[in-house]
Amino acid sequence: MSMKSYERYRDSSLDWVSVVPEHWKVKKLKHVSDVNLSNVDKKSIKGEKEVLLCNYVDVYYNDVITDAIEFMRATAKYEQINRFKLKRNDVIITKDSESPTDIAVPTWVSKDFDDVLCGYHLALLRPNDQINGKYLFYTLQSQAINQQFHAKANGVTRFAIGKNTIKNAMVLIPPLLEQEKIAKWLDESLSNIDEIVSKKKQQIEILKQYHQSLITETVTRGLNSDVKMKDSGVEWLGEIPEHWNIKKIKHFTNHIGSGKTPRGGGEIYVDEGVLFLRSQNIHKDSLRLDDVVYIPKEIDNKMANSRVKNNDILMNITGASIGRANVYKLDIPANVSQHVCIIRVKEEKISPDYLNYVIASSYFQSQIMAYQNGASKEGLNFSQISNISFIVPRNIEEQNSIVDFLNMKISQIESIRKLMLQQIESFQQYRQSLIYEVVTGKIDVRNYVSNEQEMT
User: Which of 26, 172, 199, 341 gives the lowest tally of CB atoms within 10 Å of its CB?
Assistant: First the structure.
């Protein structure tokens, strides 16, 4: 996309952009927009009027606020309704978050709302007649301009900006008609990029589904499509290869158990010691050690029964990641927390990698979920794990062939997925660069003719 620059520029006196078009103005946000920090909480109080709230997540995950969003119900005082009711061209930004980079994330309000208010943790910006609301939205989407807020966000575990920080932020103000041109140009240019990114994300989701179905199909049907089948006797499983058996986990294991969380919590962790694996380290694709911790050898000695051995299957048995498993193949000593189960198999009877694929299959995961929907919702116990049924080839060579096949196919799927993620990242960087180039006056779109204008 080739666009020309402006003919004349002047010094901006700003840190985040050196020069601006000569006819543009530089102003504080408070001179072009009202700024109000919402105090409308999520609670419903008797005697107050029922309203809908546009909350933090509505702003964070949506570039545009429309009536398609399912807003939260709450109540508010009449003074709050008058002050925070959403109007077309309002811009809402996040004012506090767990990360400074999530400060001042903007959204644009597309219409007048009768009963939707700006919720807590947000700032409502109402542009005056000097600035176009959509242009202001795009200005605040530019990372360079947004950096003003990130730099002044205060906090340790949670970061926030105050009203004065928002009001005194500097913005670039082209003539109003030019702002409208910029907004329309970005609307059309970015919609094309967003459509491509959306399709890429859909393709990744399809890959994810194929990945799951491939595992389940292979560990329940094998590699030979012509193999003779038999009724499994299990309604939801259907037919299985004739020479395969239905067995329980306990028939193939020497040990099923978990560790414990040492007394003292995080205070006992050390910089060097024995690797201590927690549920956040156990993932289906790998063991992720970016936030791993270590325990002293003395504590490891007290937890000797939960030391991890090579080829142990480690499976999360509590929380949202329940059933997530991987095979330990690191040649270093390790131990596990109480939230991670060690499944140590009899390797002369079953491949640990094959069983790991079985655990990842839909039919095995459905059995785990069945336990969660029953009497015990706290997590899996060792008896439940021992008695989960699965199908297995009698021949360990066939198990290994299945493992080799799945390793190859999943490696191919993962390569495609990574390529798509790289493409998405490139498009998102290009998107961000377009916003910056236009809202800082690096390129001139005054002569831009929209698709709508071309049709007329």
Answer: 199
